[in-house]
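just leaving the lab so this will be short. below you get a single protein, a line of residues and a line of whole numbers that encode the local backbone shape. id like you to explain what the token line says about the fold, in plain words if possible. thanks a lot i owe you, the record is right below:

…
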Amino acid sequence: MYGYDSFLGFPDISHEKDSFEEFGRLLEDGLITEDLYEDVIKAKTLRSMIFGSYNVQSASSSGDFSNTSLVQLRSKIEFLGLDNIELIVGPFSETMKGPQPFEKLFTVLIDCDLYESYMSTFALIQPLLSSQAYVCLDEYYSLKFPGARRATHEFLETSSLEYDLVMKKSSDGFERWGIKVK
């Protein structure tokens, strides 16, 4: 297992495709439903009521990840006796370029919130995805991070992969999305 992270907390958000207004553009482009858009508005209103303001930088209910500790994570990995995890530390824009420690990928979890991070990940994984590979898209159904959905569609529009975009809905209505390579 390879884990990529900067371990520096949430980066500054400057890309327009991560702005709250991107949800409106996704709706206009038919990439989200009216129901999802209404849920986005409700979630934004609720966060504003609780926290007094809303911006993408503070949208994560997990905070800004500034208390993330590489030392603590490595200690947990060692304590659990896991010897199949390699952490690759640094910004995605740097660590996902050039040679990688693997040749093929069968399962990928993308959980990086932002447009540019998703695009960096897609650029890395596209040529390495095996037949029947599965890519889990953590923020595709996000009520906070529109850039993930935009990046996914831009990737799929330009990719030569044969794929299915798949969704599983939980009993509470939450959707989990992924890409299944053919």
Summary: The beta strands are 2-5, 86-89, 105-110, 129-137, 163-169, 175-181. The chain has one domain: 2-181. Helices lie at 22-28, 34-51, 70-79, 92-95, 115-125, 146-158. DSSP finds six helices and six strands in the chain.
